[in-house]
Write a structure and sequence with these properties.
alpha/beta; 7-stranded parallel beta sheet; Rossmann fold; 10 helices; binds nicotinamide-adenine-dinucleotide; globular; 41% helix; 2 domains; UDP-galactose 4-epimerase, domain 1; 311 residues; single chain
Length: 311
C-alpha cells in the first residue's frame, strides 16, 4: 500500500511518515520545504520537493497512484493568517481543493485531513465535544473549517471517503518555534539556553497538549477506521501554562522563573478537547503521558543543541 503525505517533511507529517514506514507502507511526500526540513525525512521516503499549488503536484499523483492521501501541508501560523488572509486561503483552502481534485481524479481510496481545534474559537472552560458550535477567531481557523466543508462535499458529490482530525496543541521533537502549538518547544529551548521563558497573561490559561507520536498514531488509525467522520485528537486533559513551566523546569539544574507580560489580545483562554467519540469510533487513545512526552522532547532538543555546538 502506498501513502502520499503532503507536508511530510514537516513536524507532524514526518512523524506520520516514520510510523507508516515502520508499519510496512510505501511512502511518498510532496513538500515545498517552506517550513519543513530534509533533516526530518527518513531515508526510505521518496520526496518530491514541490508546492501543492503547482502543476507538478498533479503529475506526481497521476504517476505514483498512491492508495491513500494524508494531507498535512498548510500555512500553520494564526498571526500570518491575520497579516495575509489571502495567502492563508490560497495554501489552506485552494491548496486543499487542488489535492482533493487529484484524489478524486486518480482514485485515492481515502483522504485524511489535519484540521485544528481553531475551528471552535472561544468555548469556555469545557472539554469541547465534536458537535460544539464552530466559530473560528482567525482566518487560519476559517480556512481549516472551509477545507472541512469542501472535504465533506467532495465525499457527497464524488464519493471520496475521508477522515478529518481536529488536533489540539501538538508538541514533540522536530517542531519549529512558529505556529499554534510551539509553546512547549519555545519554553524547552529557553530552559536549555538558560533563559527565562515569557508567559503572556497570568499563566492560568489552559491547553490540551498532545504528543506528536500520538497524533501520528491517530492518522494511521484513520487509514482503516472512522470513514466520513470528524474526530477530536487531544488528551481530554487541560494543562495551564504555569503547570507546563513547572513540568519542564525539573529537567534543568537552574530553577529559572518565568517572566510575566500582559496577555496578547485574541489569545484563547481555555482549550481542551473531548475525545470520547474518538476512543469509541476511531479506536484510538493517547498512549504517551505528558511527563513521557516532555522527557522525549527535552532529550531531543538537548541533542540538537549539542549537535549545533559541535558544528
Ligand atoms: N502543530 C500543531 O499544534 C497543530 C495543531 C492543529 C493542527 N495542525 C495542522 O497540522 C498540519 C501539520 O502542521 P505542523 O505543525 O507539522 O506544521 P509544519 O509547518 O511543520 O508542517 C507543514 C509542512 O507543509 C509544508 N508546506 C507548507 N506549505 C506547502 C505548500 N504550499 N506546498 C507543499 N508543502 C507545503 C511545509 O514545508 C511543512 O513541511 C497542518 O495542517 C496544521 O495546520 C497543527
Amino acid at each position: 500500500m502506498k501513502v502520499l503525505v503532503t507536508g511530510g517533511a514537516g513536524f507532524i507529517g514526518s512523524h506520520i511518515t516514520d510510523l507508516l514506514l515502520e508499519q510496512g507502507y510505501e511512502v511518498i511526500v510532496i513538500d515545498n520545504l517552506s517550513s519543513g526540513s530534509l533533516k526530518n525525512l527518513h531515508r526510505d521516503v521518496v520526496l518530491y520537493q514541490t508546492d501543492i499549488l503547482s502543476q507538478e503536484a498533479e503529475k506526481i499523483i497521476k504517476a505514483e497512484k498512491p492508495d491513500y492521501l494524508i494531507h498535512t501541508a498548510a500555512q500553520i501560523s494564526i498571526a500570518k493568517s491575520i497579516e495575509s488572509p489571502t495567502d492563508d486561503a490560497n495554501i489552506n483552502i485552494i491548496g486543499t481543493m487542488k489535492i482533493l481534485d487529484y484524489a478524486k481524479k486518480y482514485g485515492i481510496k481515502k483522504f485524511i485531513f489535519s484540521s485544528s481545534c481553531a475551528v471552535y474559537g472561544e468555548t469556555g472552560d469545557i472539554n469541547i465535544p465534536i458537535n460544539h458550535k464552530l466559530d473560528p477567531l482567525s482566518f487560519y481557523g476559517a480556512s481549516k473549517l472551509s477545507s472541512e466543508l469542501y472535504i465533506q462535499l467532495y465525499c457527497k458529490f464524488y464519493q471520496l471517503p475521508y477522515t478529518i482530525l481536529r488536533y489540539s496543541n501538538v508538541y514533540g521533537p522536530r517542531q519549529s518555534t512558529q505556529g499554534e502549538g510551539g509553546v512547549v518547544n519555545i519554553f524547552t529551548n529557553c530552559y536549555l539556553s538558560e533563559k527565562r521563558p515569557i508567559i503572556y497573561g497570568d499563566g492560568e490559561q489552559t491547553r490540551d497538549f498532545i504528543f506528536v507520536k500520538d497524533v501520528a498514531m491517530a492518522n494511521l488509525a484513520a487509514l482503516q477506521k472512522g470513514n466520513n467522520k470528524i474526530f477530536n485528537i487531544g488528551t481530554g486533559h487541560k494543562t495551564s501554562i504555569n503547570k507546563l513551566t513547572e513540568m519542564l523546569k525539573v529537567h534543568v539544574p537552574e530553577k529559572l522563573t518565568p517572566e510575566y507580560t500582559p496577555a496578547v489580545g485574541g489569545d484563547i483562554r481555555f482549550s481542551c478537547l473531548n475525545i470520547e467519540d474518538t476512543i469509541k469510533d476511531l479506536n484510538w487513545r493517547p498512549a504517551w503521558s505528558m511527563k513521557e512526552g516532555l522527557e522525549e522532547t527535552f532529550t531531543y532538543y538537548q541533542m540538537e543543541m549539542k549537535g549545533d555546538e559541535n558544528g
